[in-house]
Amino acid sequence: MTEPSLYDQVLDYENRANPWPLYEKLRSQPVWQEADGTFVVSTYREALALQHDPRVSSDPANLLPEFAAIRPPGEGDGTATGFIRTDPPRHDVLRRMAMRQFGPPHRPDFVDSFTPTLQTIVAKLIDKLADRQQADIVDDVAYPLPVAAICRMLGVPPEDEPTFSAWVEPIVNSLGNPTPEQLQERTHAIQAMANYMFELAQRRRAEPGDDMISGYVTDDGPDGRLEGADLFGTLVLLLIAGHETTVNLITNGWLTLQRHPEVLQRLRTEPAFVIRLVEELLRYEPPVHILPFRTPTNDIEIGGTTIRKGHPVAIMLASGNRDPHCIPHADRFDPDRVGNVHLSFASGVHYCFGAPLARLEAQVALVELAKRLENPHLVADPPPYRPSPVLRGPIHLPITYDRVSPR
Amino acid sequence: MRVVVDLTKCEGYAQCAFLAPEAFRMVGDEALMFDPSPPDELREKVLRAAAACPVQALQVDFADLPPHSQGESTAWHGEGRLGQDGRVVIVGASLAGLKAAEQLRAEGFPGSITMIGDEPEEPYDRPPLSKQVQTGWAHSADTTLPRRREIDADWKLGVAATALDLDRKTVTLADGQEVGFDRLLISTGVRARPWHVPEEAALDGVFTIRTRADATGLRERLMSKPSRVLVIGSGFTGSEMASVCVELGIPVLVAEAGPAPLAGALGGVIGRIAGGIMREHGVDLRTNTMVTSLQGEDGKLRRALLSDGTTVDVDVAVVALGGIRNVEWLESSRLAVGVWGVACDAGCRAFDANGLVTDDVFVAGDVARQPQPMFGYQFLAMEHWGNSVSQAEVAAHNMISGESDRWPHLEVSAFWSLQFGNNIKSVGVPVIADQVAITQGSVQKRQFVAAYGYKGRIVGAVSWNQGKWLDFYEQQIEQAAPFPPPYDMTNPPEDPTPVAAEFPERTYPGREATVMVTGHDPSERRATLVRNARRR
Questions:
Q1: What pLDDT score was predicted for residue A74?
Q2: Nearest of B444, B471, B466, B485 to residue A88 by alpha carbon
Q3: Which H or E run contains A392?
Q4: Which residue of B9, B13, B18 to mutate against A (max A Cβ within 10 Å)?
Q5: Which residues sit opposite B438 in a β-bridge?
Q6: Considering only CB atoms, which chain B residues are within 8 Å of A360?
Q7: How many CB atoms lie within 10 A of CB B150?
Q8: How much is the average pLDDT of A225-239?
């Protein structure tokens, strides 16, 4: 048995709490080839370049047959991937149809108009912490916030939200290296949710509201209508991708604030500071560490190496964010950073669909937590982490506090 | 508050349009329009938008920058640096001038900065003047560029520089003042080429569009619902004006002397695609057609005679025939000055007429003509927003730095245009190409990328609503990668076969190509020693 490679060590759960020294070693060479044929790209410049390279495909059909069995770490079974596993032009059409109900140019005000709703959701979640002196940032705030938000946006009626959340949980839980039981639960949940969505879509078609599902089933853009598997794939994608990532952003964010008390203090007195703070949190502790599973349609020379056609490529976003050759004082957490060009939402045509919503959710949640929790402390540092090296963040983040200030 | 977006950098991620929809608006999938002067109550949203920009293209006033960025300047020392009593004079108070001043202060330059401009206003942004100002989303008065830091300059506005004396190191102004300098930056830019018959150009209703005053006048006239607008020339400005007229519902006729719109900048093949789009939008496009005269009654424009023999009734004519470089004030300066601008080296130092490089005179922006190593060290004259900024920064750095710390200006040229809902972006220097090939996407769907080749190497690229891929082509251009691209890409085009790019012969600087390859010496074939009076 050979020594585990640096990439193997990154994937190893033992290193989940602190992968940064491994990333630094990885960056000593921009591109590594793993024994299984995977290429690992860890430097900023190369990670960025590959995301703008039209020779790099997101479609698994372009993987050579011998790699078909390799599942990217932390990925599910691929049942509901929507447009993220497609290339242009198909990708662009699907994404444009999905975007039509979510953002500009067709619905430019939609996300912004949700800011007060997000504030209310967060305020209520924090109200619930008032009668105790300990909480779990994950279960009490970071997890329920995006579920509630996406339910409102999609148009899931409030009375159905608990049922809906119950389906989300097994789907999200199966994202790591799922056990057979988890996979089975996932299948049930997806089936139940599909039935529910189908029925909801029928209702909305008859009685449309201003929610996204109503838009999808009634408002045809120039590209036509999202239907059947495309519609369901997109909805599940929005749910999962917009969910697990936001949980990590808020949780990693709070953890980092607790580790930098002076920054937390500043946030209490200067709420507008959260805008730049969240950008730096994204860079410094990104919710998604790796873009797995891209593959070249041709051999590509990059970083002194040739990445082979049809081989899997793992783009190490989190490592790129800390590349000192491109990011000044990259290892320092500096919320006043100017020109913060992190990779955390990826780049190019696959740039995160829900990024604006994730930013707003994190901004609202972190300001409210900072303002209202008095004397918060971490129970454990580092906290326990989720299994996934891709969607990396604490599974729980228990804290104690003296009291909760009124709104 | 004031806002500007570096649309060269912008890749259309729309984060600003999500987070501050009142101030930023997407047109199609990736083109951005912005309000350069959003109301103060939008401050928080605009700051959110600025922070979220993935390529950090959005700039706001320095009051909104984090506190320490004001003091981030490097320590002021080092061999050859200009000190406390150093005097920098910047002639041309526009984008390049302002960016140079900001760069000087960012590097901690402690001496004096004098900004001289012939227009009465502080530096303002010109691209919106032919776009959101004409469609009424922004006012021309609101296009003042945001300040990225305090520059503490002595402003001399509304007074043109009239002469440069290299021996005495002084600039003479129109009001007779003399301003002495230790370092000079020439950033006097370009003015609009007027209609060539002065009496016709003076008719009420004939406009050029370059300055704020031009834009204000034209906007007022368009608001009075003219029956038809004539656009003379279909480079970027002319095409954008035609697009504005369509958006405003005003009938528009475009007279283009060449075979297709944008042919000067992008070649005939791509130009014909642009022409097709124009016609689809109802523009009366007449190619290979010149305007032979403009006729008026009572001093007002009434009709135009065209070389196709027709006469058309028009109330408004927009003359979009490119620019004239503002170099007349340098005629007796002994600098290497011509119709293509002021020649300078890769470090933005001006050449004198004998090809000697000067130490203290620098050039940046549209008026500069600079050798580009990527293109055989030919001199390029570029009228691009991004080029102005990057040259200004290099010039400013070099003028206060010692020899061992000078920067070369090597940026690959890039520009954008927004017309008929299409976002057109380009990198490299298409005008030197002999061939062009569609490399990605669909021309028919107006979503494609085309690459330009010269002698088997890639030299440029243009994207239509596919701007996120251009970074790749920029790298290919830097590496002089083979053309046509010898590999499979995602989203392959129907027909990738290279064809002749069909660029017009280089003629005169008014064909609205925004990059000109001027050769090593475009205007002079003789060598005449221009003697320095004092050293004779």
A1: 36
A2: B466
A3: none
A4: B18
A5: B450
A6: 19
A7: 10
A8: 84
Distances from the Cα of A405 to the Cα of A133, A362, B28, B229, angstroms: 12, 20, 46, 64
For residue A1, being part of any structural domain is answered with no
**Domain limits for position A71:** 6-404
DSSP one-letter string for A92-125: HHHHHHHHTTTSTTTSTTTTGGGHHHHHHHHHHH
Interatomic CA distance for residues A221 and A223, integer angstroms: 5
Counting one residue from A and one from B, how many pairs have CB atoms under 8 Å apart? 122
Given this structure, which CATH class describes domain B414-513? alpha beta
Q: pLDDT tens for residues B306-328? A: 999 999 999 999 999 999 999 99
| ipTM for the predicted complex | 0.95
Smallest CA–CA distance, residue A7 to chain B, in Å, is 27
Interface touch A297/B488, C-beta < 8 Å: yes
* CB atoms B19 and A111 under 8 Å: yes
Radius of gyration of chain A (CA): 21
Record: contact B487-A55, CB cut-off 8 A: yes
Interchain proximity A297–B487, CB inside 8 Å: yes
Predicted local distance difference test score (pLDDT) of residue A241: 76
CATH number for the domain harbouring residue A139: 1.10.630.10
Neighbour-count burial for A360-395, b at 16+ CB within 10 Å, e otherwise: bbbbbbbbbbbebbeebebeeeebebbbbbbbbbbb
Tokens 């540092």, residue located:
A381
Q: Answer yes or no: do B25 and A298 touch at CB < 8 A.
A: no
Query: Which has the higher per-residue pLDDT, A83 or B535?
Result: A83
CB-CB neighbors (< 8 A) of A49 in chain B: 471-472, 475
Q: Which of B13, B48, B427 is the mutation pick for testing A, counting most A CBs within 10 A?
A: B48
Give chain B's residues under pLDDT 50: 70-72, 509-511, 520, 522-527, 533-536
Question: What stretches of A134-179 show up as alpha helix (H) in DSSP?
Answer: 137, 144-154, 161-173
Give the pair of three-digit tokens for residue B308: 């196709």
The answer to whether the CB atoms of A54 and B490 lie below 8 A apart is yes
> Domain B198-321 is of which CATH architecture?
3-Layer(bba) Sandwich (3.50)
**Which residues of A lie inside 8 Å of B (Cβ-Cβ)?**
48-49, 52-57, 59, 87-89, 92, 96, 103-105, 108-109, 111-112, 272, 275-276, 278-279, 297-298, 336-341, 345, 347-349, 351, 355-356, 359-360, 363
pLDDT, tens digit, for every residue of B93-109? 999 999 999 999 999 99
Residue B357 β-bridge partners:
B351
Asked whether A38 and A311 are in contact (CB, 8 A), the reply is yes
- Rounded CA separation B127/B228 (Å): 24
Q: How confident is the model at residue A379 (pLDDT cuts 50, 70, 90)?
A: very high
Across the interface, of B44, B54, B440, the residue whose CB is closest to A345 is: B54
A51 burial class (0-12, 13-18, 19+ CB within 10 angstroms)? Answer: buried
Q: Where are the domains of chain B?
A: 83-119+158-191+324-411, 198-321, 414-513
Spatial CA neighbour of B84 closest among B106, B110, B113: B110
Q: Which two tokens stand for residue B486?
A: 């010898």
- Residue of chain A whose Cα is closest to the Cα of B22: A109
Rounded to a whole number, what is the distance in Å from the CA of A93 to chain B's nearest CA? 11
> Mean pLDDT lowest for which of A190-194, A369-373, B29-33?
A190-194
Q: Are residues B14 and A104, on separate chains, in Cβ contact within 8 Å?
A: yes
Chain B interface, mutation test: which of A46, A53, A101, most B Cβ atoms within 10 Å? Answer: A53
Q: Give me the pLDDT at residue B514, please.
A: 59
What are residue B229's phi and psi, to 5 degrees?
A: -110, 135
Class of domain B83-119+158-191+324-411: alpha beta
Contacts of A108 in chain B (CB under 8 A): 17-18, 21, 25-26
